[in-house]
Model the fold of this input.
Amino acid sequence: MTSISEDFTAEHRFCDDAFIRIEQLTHQGDWDAARSAAGAFIGVTEAHLRREEERLFPALEAAAPMANGPTGVMRAEHAQMRELFAAIDASLTAQDTESLGDALDTLLLLMQQHNAKEESVLYPLADRVIVDTHVVD
Done:
């Protein structure tokens, strides 16, 4: 059985790989495939965000009430990501290379900072305080 940190960090890497695929296809000029890759990326990333918001964060907040501040920040960043998902989708539909590049760059930076905080602070805290790890499965 893996730890919470290992499990959720692995999901981050999976989402990262899906994100890279969008960039690759965009650079190749394959808009249809890039749109499909974006749909796949958004789908797996949304599933990860929902798993955090619906399972991990509530379990962490119940076990360590001081986590409410950091989880609130993470939820706000999730909302920012969702806005960028919409911008990416719109840019792909319009085949607007400039706005797509801006949205992808902004999302990449946000995800890198967000994931670093979760992986260095939130997940290790969850490993320490959540006794019943089945609540986040």
